[in-house]
Amino acid sequence: MIVRRYIVRDMPEAVMSIRKDLGKDAVILSTKKVRVKKWLGLRWQKRLEVTAAVGGDIPLHHDVVRNGVKAPAAPVREETRETPPVTRPEATDVLDEPSFGAALAGAFGAYQATAAAMQPAQQDGGVKAPQQVPVVEDVLRELASLKAMLQTQVGSRDSASVASECEGFLRAQGVGEDVARQWAQRATANDPDVPMPIALSRVQQVILDELGDLAIPMPISQESRVVAFVGPTGVGKTTSIAKIAALYVLAGKRRVGLLTTDTFRIAAVEQLKTYADILGVPMLVVDDAQELPLRLAELSGCDLILVDTAGRNFRKPETVANTQSLLGSLAPDETILVASLTAKPDDLDALVTACNPFGIDKFLFTKLDETSTVGSIPALLAKYQRPLSYVTVGQNVPDDIDILSVEQILDRWLGGEAGE
């Protein structure tokens, strides 16, 4: 029979050491609290002394009676050692879960019951029969149960972290909080442990599925004759109009005319006139909404008229009212809102909300080459249910304009570069 004494921090550490040294048949004989010296005897620490044995008949008392005469017990080989402290992971919120705490309390209760039951009870100098004690395997099964529970909870937290990481990525890309959370959860629902690159590809697919036909670009329709472009100052409306006009002129399929109502910005008329002269197309200026019918009549020979409106601050109610009145007199076949991708997501959303009374039909996004965040595109398309017409990727006329699908734009998330 082998008897060993362990100085440990707690019962779980003792059980693991006993199982490792003495095997599954070992039993715990006694436990008690002790104090040991540390740091060259300058400091005391509380420890637990656990005595365990394995072998033949386990003695319940130090003396054995043979034929009515007390005889010394068979010699045993006893080893005393202090097991090295078990490295414990840092505490996390997983340990605060009620289910985990309850299971831990139950396991500790089992340890206490085992230790109490295994200690011999003495009365009147005699030895009572020991209570039935649970075997070490029961304790180890309890530990295994705790381990499985902990792994399950940690796994669920890891899964949540993947969805949270996807949500954070979408937020950084310009998607609103609620929509970002919804798309991230849908992308990771069936396979929560998926690596982040695969999760992003699934986020992209979730977005494409939600957009449906809106993910397909819709440039100016062949049936549209008068197309108005609206947007705030500095987003590149005039340059975008020149690029579109050049595309149609070079294609040679439609007779293009230009019309501008932007008499507020210095040199705006001259800028558009310069492009018109280069392309060889007519260009007229409208100083007042009442002149619109006359100017449109002068362009009766054109089957596509692109109208450049003044860039204004649409946060002002009077600006919205003036533009709405102008568009009411113009009665365009399509109204395209021009927005810059370098603007903040909240400002873009506020712009679309302010321009909604104009009857926006499509979006045109500029400055795709000046930003790495493109989440505002699918977010606005999904929220306002309007398609994308064009995107611009530079200042060169007519080269730096393209017709891209939402899938091509979102390929940037997977390492691609839309527009190249």
Put the structure in a nutshell:
By secondary structure, this protein is of the alpha/beta class. It folds into 3 domains: 1-65 and 72-84, no CATH class; 152-212, no CATH class; 216-414, 3-Layer(aba) Sandwich (Rossmann fold), CATH 3.40.50.300.
Please explain how this structure is put together.
This protein has 420 residues and is an alpha/beta fold. The protein folds into three domains: 1-65 and 72-84, no CATH class; 152-212, no CATH class; 216-414, P-loop containing nucleotide triphosphate hydrolases (Rossmann fold, 3-Layer(aba) Sandwich), CATH 3.40.50. It contains twelve helices and 16 strands. The protein has helices at residues 11-22, 98-118, 136-172, 177-188, 196-211, 237-251, 268-279, 292-298, 317-330, 345-355, 376-384, 406-410; strands at 2-8, 27-38, 43-54, 63-66, 69-72, 77-82, 122-123, 126-127, 226-230, 256-260, 283-285, 304-308, 334-340, 362-366, 388-392, 401-402. Helix 4 (177-188) packs across helix 5 (196-211). The longest helix is centred in the middle third of the chain and has 37 residues, at 136-172.
